[in-house]
Specification:
Length: 87
C-alpha cells in the first residue's frame, strides 16, 4: 500500500493513495518551426496518486499526476539550421 494523501480535485479535497511506479518509456516530442528552429519537449511524471473518486462514465479510478516538462531548443544561425544541440 502507498502513502495516503489528500489531493485538490476541483473545489474539494479528495482522499487518495500515492503509488510507486517505474517509468517504462519517456520519449521526446520533436518539432521543426517555420523559422528553422527546433524544439524538443518531454513530459516526465514525478508522482502518481490514485483518487478515491471514480469516473462517473465507466467507474474507473481517477488519477492525479504531478508532471515536469523538459524542453530543449536549437535556433538557426547564419541562415542554416543547426542540428539538435545534444547530438
Amino acid at each position: 500500500m502507498g502513502h495516503r494523501v489528500k489531493v485538490r480535485f476541483g473545489e474539494e479535497w479528495v482522499d487518495g493513495e500515492e503509488l510507486q511506479f517505474e517509468p517504462l518509456k519517456e520519449s521526446w516530442n520533436e518539432y521543426r518551426c517555420s523559422d528553422g528552429s527546433y524544439v524538443k519537449l518531454k513530459v516526465v511524471v514525478s508522482k502518481i496518486t490514485r483518487l478515491e473518486r471514480q469516473n462517473p462514465q465507466g467507474g474507473a479510478h481517477l488519477f492525479n499526476l504531478i508532471l515536469q516538462r523538459r524542453c530543449c531548443n536549437s535556433a538557426p544561425a547564419g541562415g542554416h539550421t543547426l542540428g539538435w544541440p545534444w547530438n
